[in-house]
Each structure stands twice: as structure tokens, then as C-alpha cells.
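Form 12-C: Joint structure prediction
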Amino acid sequence: MISVAVLGYGTVGSGVVEVIENNNAEVSAKAGEEMHVKYILDLRDFPGDPYEDRVVHDFRVILEDPEVSIVCEVMGGVGAAYQFTRQALEAGKSVCTSNKELVAKHGAELLELARTKNCSYMFEASVGGGIPIIRPINKALTAEKIESIIAILNGTTNYILTKMEKEGADYAQTLKQAQELGYAERNPEADVEGHDACRKVAILSSLMVGKNVDSEKLYTEGITRITPADFEYARAEGMTIKLLATSVGYEDGSILAMVAPTMLSKEHPLAAVNDVYNGVFVTGNMLGDVMFYGKGAGKLPTASAVVSDVVDCARHIGRSSIVCIWDKEEAKLIDKAETEKAFFVRVKAIAKDTVCKLFPGGHFVEAGRSEDCGYITEVMKEKDFAEKCKELGENLLNEIRLA
Amino acid sequence: MISVAVLGYGTVGSGVVEVIENNNAEVSAKAGEEMHVKYILDLRDFPGDPYEDRVVHDFRVILEDPEVSIVCEVMGGVGAAYQFTRQALEAGKSVCTSNKELVAKHGAELLELARTKNCSYMFEASVGGGIPIIRPINKALTAEKIESIIAILNGTTNYILTKMEKEGADYAQTLKQAQELGYAERNPEADVEGHDACRKVAILSSLMVGKNVDSEKLYTEGITRITPADFEYARAEGMTIKLLATSVGYEDGSILAMVAPTMLSKEHPLAAVNDVYNGVFVTGNMLGDVMFYGKGAGKLPTASAVVSDVVDCARHIGRSSIVCIWDKEEAKLIDKAETEKAFFVRVKAIAKDTVCKLFPGGHFVEAGRSEDCGYITEVMKEKDFAEKCKELGENLLNEIRLA
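Section 2 - Result
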């Protein structure tokens, strides 16, 4: 019998209990032993809830119960969640989490602690919700040198951009609809400014290079400046606009990781990742391109990912099932200013001549608009592009990187 | 030091050696120990090959060397490959294979043998080439009851269908081009008649239900009857045509598995899987839909998948790393005649009235063609559809299932 404790009885926490109870036959068969939820830690009581008898308010009850071998930390935050995770690992209990903020901030340290205590720290649900991505990177693409990861990691912004593309709606109006439907938070900043995607790409990048990638050091740009006009030009060019989280590895072990709205060809598999779905496009030096696609959020998909970690831990009681390499040492980050790409610029109609003088290797995009003018530059360094944009001054209406 | 033997120095075999040698740092780090190829078994000699000194002609050399703990069977076929696999497993050596024919035929038996000998039988490369799909199903989607799998599992036919769609070319002409480019075999039957996809879906189905699914009992239809006209109608309806391998689980544990060309909506993620790529779309009862996408064949992608199995085995020397459930007991198969779906029919123009009398709940597809007439039926049982088609006689030009 495997006894599990769930920390936090919110959306994901109640999902974890539901998955373990409803799919008990499948989960227990895969774990090799019967599994049950012994405790649910929450500050609240849940009178009438079918699992109300399992609710406890004191973490020590869980910590001091030798029967509990696996703890699911689905509280969120980096305060109590961090303390409880450390205490559980210190006691040799494996911890499975969906808490991307904590993983991004303390992943390397918690993995090391788990290893020394012969238990595991697992975080499949921290990136891509229900999509298996952490485990495939750690346990399936083991023959590969991963060269790059390009991903749509935030469902809220992908939903907004998909709506804007399909309906020609503007950003503010679409955000409001998304909030009404529950796809966006009342305070949407973490999503729409790209911070959520940034934490996730920092986690993927750390696993890719085996060193710590600090999410706070990554360039992050959100979707708030994207307009229907930008989509008109993208469409005319056979492209779409996605909030892409990218991570590119260099020969010397350094990486360029960032989050930014990006124009990409309609032919790219990520262009077909729409609505609240996520997609992670991985390029390995031997296998070429693979993509993982699915629901990046939601109660049951996220809970399913947490429980897949629980099953993994259950099969490795008394020893660590961690195979990833994520050292505390900081990865060397490339300055994006020195990297090269092409850019889409939208300028006022009066700046038509200026733009083709500034970027003589580029071309206009014909979208049948007279209010403004769309142009795609030649491939150039980010810093040179930024320099030239200064000359456009307030005639520059928007700029979007090309994939 | 982990010593590996490679059986068969053909395309995949030389790829396996290349991946282990070229990505040795990555592979050894993930395996937790240095890995090297000690033997290559082949009937031929390879003078001048960088690894010619490792070539042996007698399998007993490998079998009797206690240093060899992992054998890669990449010979193909169900004769010697089967004998060598059994002998290796009997001797406690793990076997990793890309041989879908052998896995489909003897998977359950070889898995059981490996388990009793505390070693592993692994076959990531047998389905989807470089795409991680076997391992995600076995080790990642462990919290799920998998409800269905819909997949594009054959790169050759997907390449042909993609070309036919994009260029309006006919089947014979496109097949010839594919053969010239090396994307299709000189004898293309196993691919174009769907047998290759059938073996692969039998493997996935066996893992899905945990019982043996005999590939020879599955309905299999190839792509040889698909014409440019069918694509014209599909396009007019916002659809495309793909060779889909499907497996649907029922509540009582029975399944419906088959391979057939299928019209599916352009909005479906599998519709964006083009050229030689494969895609596997899995629906679980908790996480909803996930898709795995990548190169379904080719030397290095396939070899990368074999080596990912080798790494898994290397981490479990002396014990079995098998987590899948695939009993010898035969799965109960559903008779497709009793299942329901809609159908596309293309009939001679003179049968226009007959077709809408036969299928009163359907609708015509307007593609601006006068030679023939496209129609989509109501959802109905396969056997009722077949019965009604008899009345169309030779006026029936083609019929294609809808997804």
C-alpha cells in the first residue's frame, strides 16, 4: 500500500485526489502496489466533501507518519511550499509538484537534496500541464544532444492570440472575454506579460543544458502590444503570431533563452497549436524535430501529470528515480543583442520610404491597408535593429521578431 | 562500463553505433556509466569501416561474453531475430529493438521472458521511429485510462498523400517519385497497403488494453484507391485525407483497431502532420488529448530511439525496467461492421439522385466537378453502409470513412 499526502486542496489538489481515486485500478497497476490518498493538507475544512475525513491542518501529521512515502505539493508559491518540500525530502519522502515558480527558483537545490536522501523531486506538471514533456526530455530523449526548444507554454495567451487571429478582435476585448470564460485570471499580468512562460522555459532550459537557468535573467516580452493589424500582415505573409518561449543551445554550453511574441510560418507545426493548447517543439542532433502537444493547464490534465510522477516515485521507494541533470552552477546566457534574426515592423504610412532605406534587404508586406505599412527586414543583429528603429521614432507602430 | 552488442549492421544498426559513439558524453551521463559498442554482428565484413574490428559473425561470441549486458536487435524479420532475442533474454541480457514485426508477433512472450530473467525487452523504435511514444504511454501516461489512439504511423504513405493533396498529382505518379527519392521501397506493398501501420497500431493497442492484439486480425486498407478527385472534395469540405491507424477502447476492455484512409477536418492536429512525419494522437480519460509528432523513420531518428532504450536498460542492470502490461491473453476485438461513422462517397454523375435517396441524412459536397459527384452520408453502421453501397453498383467510384 502506497500512502500519499496532498498539500493544498484547491483546483489541482482536488484533481490529484480525483485521479488517484477514479483511476485507482490503472494507477495501482502501474505503481505495482495499491495507492491511496491518506492525508489532504489545507487550512480550510471541507464539510460534506467525500474526502473530508482525510483533511488535516498540521503538516507535522504528514511529516511524522512513516507510512506516507509520497507528498504532492500543489499549494503554489515559494514560502510554505518551499519549507514543506524541504522538510518532506529531508524525511526521505518523495515530492511531486505542479509549482513552476518553486521549481524554477529552487529546482537544482531540491533535486540535490532529494538525491542525497534517496528519494525524488519530480515536476512533470510544472511545464505543459498534462503534456508529458519533462519525463520525455529526461527519460526518452536520452540519446540526444538537444539543440533547441521552441514552445507555446501559456494557454491563456495562446487562447487570446488564436481568437484575435480568427476573429480580428482586439487585445483588450479578447482578454475580457477570456476572463469571463475563466481562461484568464482577473489579474492576468503573469500570463499576458510572459512571466509564466518564462518560468517554464527556464525549467526546460535548465534540463537542456544541465545547469541552472535563472528565469529572472531571461528577456521576456508579453502580448499586450499585438494588434489586429499585425495579424492582417502576418496572414498576408502566410504567417501567424504566437507567444514563443525559445531556448537555443550553443556549442560551448551557453544558451539563449527568451519569451516573445513571434511571427512564424503557417507551415510550422506550432502554428497549428491553437486555443488553450500548448506545444513543445524539440530539436535533437540525431532525431531532428519532435513535438509534444496537449492541454497546458486545467484541473485534471495537470493532476494527471502530478499523478504520473507519483507512480514513478511509487516504483522507486527507497531510492531516487531522478535521472535529470540540473546542477546549481549557473548556465552561461547569450546576450540576445548579438543574435541574428529578421523582424516585422509596422510603421505609419508616411514612413514608407524611410523603412526601406533603413532595411534595404527587406520587403513590404501587402495586406491592402492604407493606415500603415508592414515590412519584413533582412536578417540582422538585434542590437543593429534596435539602433535603426530609433530613427523611425514615433512612426514605428510595432515590431515583432520572426521565427 | 556498459558493453553493448548490435545485431545487424544495416541502416539502423550503423545509426545505433553512430549515436552511441557521437553522443557518447550525453549517453554515458544519462546511463550513469560509460557506454561502448563491443560487438557488431553481421554476416558481412566491413573493410575500412571505423568499427570493422568490432564485427563478429557468430552470435555465440556475444551470448557467451558476460560483459555484454545489452543487445540491440536491428536485423528485422521474425526468424534469426526471434531466436537471438530469446537466447539473449534467457542469458539475462536486455534486448532493445526496432523490429516491429517481431514485437507485434511475439511481444507478450518476450516481455514475459525478460521479466522472469530480470532483464528488459524494449521497443521504443518499433513505433513512430524517433518519436517517443512507447515510453510516454508506459511511463508518462500512467495516471490515465487511455480511451483512444488515432495515429499517422507510416511516413511513406503520408508523404504520398501530402504530395497528392498539395500538387493534385495521382497516386501512381507520386509513388514513383517517392521511390526515386528513397521515401518508398521498390516493393512498396507493406507501406501502401497499410500492413506496416497495422503492425504498429497492434503494438500500441496491446499496450493500451494490456492484452495481446493480433495484427493479422485487424481490418487494414491501404491508399492505392485514393485519387486527386477525392482530395478535391475533401478540400471543398475543409478536410484532408490521411492513412489513419485507430484504436478505440470500450468499457468492457474490448477494442476496435483498424487502418484505413480517412477524411478528417483540417482543424484536427493530425491534419498538420505532413510529408514523412508521423503523429500519434492519444486521448486519456483525465488529461484529454495529447499528440506526439516527429520523424517516423530514418536512420538516426530510429537509432536514437533504440539508444534511448539502451540507456533505460543500462540504468536497470540486474533488474527489469519493464513497466508495461501486455499479457498473452488475446484482447477482445470489436467487429467494425457494428460500429458507426459517416462516409464520403464519390459516385458517377448519373447516380446523383440515387445517392441522396440511399442516404437521406447526408449532403452533397460542392467541388465544381461535373465528371462525378461527392456526397457525405449520415452517421450509420458500417454494415448498413456496405449494404446500401451494393445498390450503387459500378456507379460507386470511391468510399472513404470520416474521422
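Section 3 - Comments
Chain A has a mean pLDDT of 96. Chain A has 14 helices and 18 strands.
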